[in-house]
Amino acid sequence: MAILVLLDNHNDKISKAALEAVSYAHQIAQNSGDEVTALSYGKLGDSLLKAVGQYGAKTVWHHADLHHPTEDQLTALCAAAMEKLGASMMVCPFDGLGKSVAPRLAAKIGAGYVAGAISLPEISGSELTVKKNVFSGKAIATVKVKTQKKIIGLMPNSVPVVTSDATAEIEAFKPEIPKSGVRVVEIRAEAAEGIPLPEAEIVVSAGRGLKGPENWGMVEDLAHALGAATACSRPVADIGWRPHHEHVGQTGIAIRPNLYIAAGISGAIQHLAGVNGSKTIVVINTDKEAPFFKAADYGIIGDVFEVLPRLTEAVKKFKAAN
Amino acid sequence: MNILVCISKAPDTTTKISFTDGNTKLNKDKVQFIVNPYDEWYALVRAIELKEQYGGTVKIISVGDAEYDPIIRKAIAIGADEAVRINSDALDAHFVASQIANYAKDKGFDLILTGKETINYNGSQVGAMIAELMGLPYVATASKLEVNGKVAKLERDLAAGVEVLEADLPVVISCAKGMAEQRIPNMRGIMAARTKPLEVIEPTPTDQYTEIVGYELPADKGSVTYIDPNNMDELVQLLHSEAKVI
Ligand SMILES: Cc1cc2nc3c(=O)[nH]c(=O)nc-3n(C[C@H](O)[C@H](O)[C@H](O)COP(=O)(O)OP(=O)(O)OC[C@H]3O[C@@H](n4cnc5c(N)ncnc54)[C@H](O)[C@@H]3O)c2cc1C
Ligand SMILES: Nc1ncnc2c1ncn2[C@@H]1O[C@H](COP(=O)(O)O)[C@@H](O)[C@H]1O
To answer: How far is CA B108 from each of CA A212, B56, B129, rounded to the nearest angstrom?
Structure first.
């Protein structure tokens, strides 16, 4: 069973989430003695593509003329690649494009699709079962895929990555891509600052306890010292203190970093839903009754205005010494 | 303009989740169901605004059993004109999308709107599948939607920035934050909702591609370790040597 992995192009880079998907596919393929082929497009240098081999892809099929494809065009690209490979499984990252290409492809080729897998699958015969989060992270479901063709969207930061020093072969793959009914008119890119939140291993997040947007310097300083991304609670995004893409929780994005530091956030159930997959949670709050402490590994009952700068200093001291 | 809005139900966001039947079924005791927030706040309200601007009808479609009816009535009360329910359990995303695509295929809708995702199974799947099954363009997680003749003008947020798109009608769109402001149904809407048509039709046979075979709750956190707010060096040490995350 050959496995295809879609590498979505993020501003002419390959995302960490996509490389995780390659490693994940490789771990599945190894058990059955199969190969992983990665599929990419757009402006990506050969050295970037070859390096995908480190994550377990034997070959990278690359469509260099496809720039800013729409979802239906990527669906066509994936379908053509699966057919040519005779692949019965595709893995893609469960973010951005993967989220909209995978279900469309599933309907096109009659594949069962698992959106947001968080574990390696168990495969017996033609049946596959795998775990995913449901009810916004309040529970985990085991999903069985019954179809012969299967698609897995892998939740970022869920399964450890395995690497080697192999390099991948690059082959041009340029099937006819149909015209799309959707046209990209304009991309108003903002300078991508720092680390994309869904991929971050460490996240520093803050809520209404910060009192106002002018106080976010403390949050950013700590994030900077840790090499972390920043996030926020929903009311903070709603009143415009922070951009919407930082809003985590049930109605924002769900993240699973290794370390989540919550400063001045009460820990409402809708907020926890987006972060309770984090491996370690640190909570800083003046109110010892704040519900977030029940979900925390480490709790600090204290004022963010004092604790955050102190923590930043301690991190800097630690980094300098190690 | 004729708009079809796909409405699903979800447990109220404050619900504590538990399971029955050897952890294979959601325990519905004490669970209050609501209209899936994205469907209500964004897809439905934007559909109603467009109808107010251009005329036409807003129709609601749900795939579900009779437990859906109060949810559908609530959505009608916000301002939809009519509703149809496909009378079946929502077996999986492919099943739901097939039912909706099959219903919509010869009805001439200009827009089919879904929410960004359901907050119960969080798949973001159904809209894309409807589009593929109907051979229509699809735009996921749109944060703005205007219609200009036969063209939809859309925006969506990227990790850094905004993408501006155009799509030919008919088109399937999944709706996210930014598209509209939540509307509270008024008394008149609630009264009118009782008499507006809610058609119930039987599903067409469709294969189920995936099945949930069991549930579990996330492992409980051990108890929290409190750290003196004056001793952040200790926290950093613990994060390094105990939690091994820095
Ligand atoms: C349908 C629905 C969906 C929702 N979805 C989301 C979601 O996706 N994400 C989300 O975050 N919320 C969501 N919410 C809102 C959620 O219920 C809470 O209202 C919200 O998370 C609270 O944000 P907060 O913790 O920043 O603010 P607050 O609840 O106001 O908490 C502020 C906290 O800061 C502490 N504090 C104050 N001053 C200090 C100080 N100097 N130092 C330290 N601590 C201090 C306080 O003790 C308090 O615990 C949703 C709500 C609904 C109804
Ligand atoms: N049972 C259902 N009936 C009608 N629409 C649904 C149903 N399930 C999902 N949808 C629609 O599809 C969107 C995406 O759902 P999902 O793919 O489950 O995340 C939802 O926001 C709804 O608009």
So the answer is: 49, 12, 18
